[in-house]
Design a protein that fits this description.
Diaminopimelate Epimerase, Chain A, domain 1, 4 strands
Length: 145
Amino acid sequence: MKPKLFLEKLDDRKIAEAIAKSESHTSGQIRVFISSKDDVVDPLERAKARFQALGMDGTRERNAVLIYFAPHTHKFAVVGDTAVHERCGEVFWTELIAVMREALKKEQFTEAVILAVETCGTLLAKHFPPTPGGGDELPNEVERD
């Protein structure tokens, strides 16, 4: 993953639209975060910290998912809240990472992120159907530091 190319080619608008569309079928919440840091050694730890900083652990059903990218260090991670882990299991995360990795290797950056969003949305919809008055608890825009 070429950091500059990744950052330039990423279509934030399309990603935000994919998040909104995916969330329309679930009470789950999805966010995407792009880090500009060049010292990310453990992306999962950074993703967990960012998850907390973004207030993603405060959703009503504890069913938020963060897709985290650190293009300067060629790393990424996906973090789900407690209810997501309880219902989805570890196999889902492993498979999701593998699918994302393939698209990233092909330099299909926006497509990789959208694929991750859509896959998370499908999984969340199975376990967390929409609730009356549930609505969007978190912003859909791509977050960056």
